[in-house]
Amino acid sequence: MLLYAITERRKLRSGLADFAANAARAGVNLLQIREKDLPDAQLYKLVSAAIARTRTTQVRVLVNGRPDIAVAARAHGVHLPSDGLSVPSVRKITPPGFLVGVSCHKVDEVERAASEGADFAVFGPVFDTPSKRGFGPPAGLSELERVCTAVRMPVLALGGVTSANARLCIEAGAAGLAGIGLFQSARSLGALVRDLKAIRKKDSVAE
């Protein structure tokens, strides 16, 4: 079970670095700094602060769309849009072990990401969510299942994912869950992470 928290600093109750530290302590696996509107210097400063606050934890910090900023700030990876930089082009300018995730909305995009050597894909929107309506109607659980069986690469479910429907995503084959509100709106990140990670454990016991 991979848990991927994505930031939107304007909706945070505290600072982004504080959220990063809380998410890391709670057991979130991946953290994407998604602040697309920031100038380079401010984005670099924000990423560096998040990394400093999580350095002794297991969380891996990725930067949205900016491998240059990610490398300069010593982040663990980058998250690419499906129509952005190619995975091979990013591999040429990043160190070994650098994570590359790709946002995908169709099965062919997931297949391309896998063939190019991405470490994981985030697929969505699975459920209806206002922030993703520009990508069309939600894909639904059946499409999520089709995508997950099409590749061996981990696929994370995104878009309208909540603690109430998270199990359905995992049962459809998702390797984990990604989101903004799922994590930023949680009253207790620690409790949320424990509940989400227990889904996989319960299913494994049942098997």
Please characterize this protein's 3D structure.
The protein is α/β, with parallel strands linked by helices. It is 42% helix and 17% strand. The chain is built from nine helices and eight strands. An eight-stranded parallel beta barrel has the order 1-2-3-4-5-6-7-8, surrounded by five helices. α1 runs parallel beside α2 (40-54) and α1 runs parallel beside α9 (189-206). The chain is globular and about 40 Å long. It starts with a strand and ends with a helix. The model has no long low-confidence stretch (mean pLDDT 94).
Along the chain, the helix and strand elements come as: EHEHEHEHEHEHEHEHH
Overall average residue pLDDT = 94
Residues in helix, %: 40-55%
Strand order of the largest sheet: 1-2-3-4-5-6-7-8
Number of helices: 9
- Specify the biggest β-sheet: 8 strands, parallel, barrel
Beta-strand portion reads 15-25%
Distance between the termini: 16 Å
Low-confidence stretches: none
Rg (CA only): 16 Å
Structural class label: alpha/beta
How many runs of DSSP E, i.e. beta strands?
Answer: 8
Q: So what's the overall shape?
A: globular
